[in-house]
């Protein structure tokens, strides 16, 4: 099993450009998440999905859109990148949303710089 | 979700037990205590979680006080590879983990 993979690993954008980050998991997990982590900070939830075809907003959703057309994939889009979106982006997945069995598996991260 | 309080940093000698404390005085009855760690700039890694009983797995032990207002993560024999930021998180049956800034554990030779 590859677990949770993220594409690309690194990216540099200019202000105003758009891009899509891809997260894929091969564990048949229902729940998937996108987080961002700024230097010296903890992770903050951007958007999440509780199943194929569903999405919901997290703590910091502005400037991002997501789609979950297939169960194994969760896409994060930046329509018009801004320097404030320079960050490391982590994807995660879990089988269940219930706290007693909700171990999240994280991907390796995508390092995005917006100039 | 309840907030947690952790020390900013801790040191531990290699081979000794690392005891990482966490205060969660406003935890409610249905909230679990989770621990994750983040090594350098990798994705966070799940360690352990519990509700009210002490828990142990191959990585660590989790000790939760009887009143559930605090807990301690124990790494029984710390190694240099355990140097990381450790996050204590409490969550109920919601979908979301709320990460704080964690404890930076430095294991030294």
Structural write-up:
The complex is a heterodimer of chains A (115) and B (109). Chain A has 115 residues and is mainly beta. Helix content of chain A is 0%, strand content 48%. Chain A is built from no helices and 11 strands. Chain A has strands at 4-7, 10-13, 19-25, 31-37, 43-49, 56-57, 65-67, 73-78, 87-94, 105-106, 110-114. In chain A, strands 2, 4, 5, 6, 9, 10 and 11 form a 7-stranded mixed sheet that branches. Chain A has a 4-stranded antiparallel sheet with strand order 1-3-8-7, with no helix packed on it. Chain A is globular, with a radius of gyration of 13 Å. The model of chain A has no long low-confidence stretch (mean pLDDT 93). Chain B has 109 residues and is an all-beta fold. Chain B has strands at 9-13, 18-23, 32-38, 45-50, 55-56, 61-64, 70-75, 84-91, 103-108. In chain B, a hairpin with a 4-residue loop joins strand 5 (55-56) and strand 6. The model of chain B has no long low-confidence stretch (mean pLDDT 92). Classes of the chains: A mainly beta (115), B mainly beta (109). The A-B interface holds A 4, 31, 33, 35, 40-45, 48, 50, 56, 58-59, 88, 90, 92, 97-100, 102-109 and B 30-32, 36, 41-46, 49, 51, 87, 91-102.
Hey, roughly how much beta strand do the residues of chain B contain? over 45%
Biggest pleated-sheet summary of chain B: 5 strands, mixed
- End-to-end Cα distance of chain B, whole Å, is 38 Å
Order of helices and strands of chain A: EEEEEEEEEEE
Rg of Cα set of chain A: 13 Å
Shape of chain B: globular
Report how far the terminal alpha carbons of chain A are from each other. Answer: 36 Å
Please give the share of residues in helix of chain B.
Answer: under 10%
Instruction: Please report the number of helical segments of chain A.
Output: 0
Say how many strands of chain A there are: 11
Q: Sketch the topology of chain B as an H/E string, one letter per element.
A: EEEEEEEEE
Largest interface: chains, residues each: A-B, 30 and 25 residues
Oligomer: heterodimer
**Mean pLDDT of chain A, as a whole number?**
93
Sum up the overall morphology of chain A in one term.
globular
Q: Order of strands side by side in the largest beta sheet of chain B?
A: 1-9-8-3-4
């Amino acid at each position: 099993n590859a677990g949770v993979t993220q594409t690309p690993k690194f990216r540099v954008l200019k202000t105003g450009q758009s891009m899509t980050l891809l997260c894929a998991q091969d564990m048949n997990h229902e729940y998937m998440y996108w987080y961002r982590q700024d230097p010296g900070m903890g992770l903050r939830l951007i958007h999440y999905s509780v199943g194929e075809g569903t999405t919901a907003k997290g703590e910091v959703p502005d400037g991002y859109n997501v789609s979950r057309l297939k169960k194994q994939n969760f896409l994060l889009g930046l329509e018009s990148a801004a320097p404030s979106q320079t960050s490391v982006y982590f994807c995660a997945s879990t089988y269940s949303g219930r706290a007693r069995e909700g171990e999240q598996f994280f991907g390796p991260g995508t390092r995005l710089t917006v100039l | 979700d309840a907030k947690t309080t952790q020390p900013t940093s801790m040191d531990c000698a290699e081979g000794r037990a690392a005891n990482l404390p966490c205060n969660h005085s406003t935890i409610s009855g249905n909230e679990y205590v989770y621990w994750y760690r983040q090594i350098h700039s990798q994705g966070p890694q799940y360690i352990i979680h519990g509700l009210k009983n002490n828990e142990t797995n191959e990585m660590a032990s989790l000790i939760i006080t009887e009143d559930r207002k605090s807990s301690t993560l124990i790494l029984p024999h710390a190694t240099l590879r355990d140097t990381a930021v450790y996050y204590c998180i409490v969550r109920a049956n919601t979908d979301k983990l709320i990460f704080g800034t964690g404890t930076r554990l430095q294991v030294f030779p």
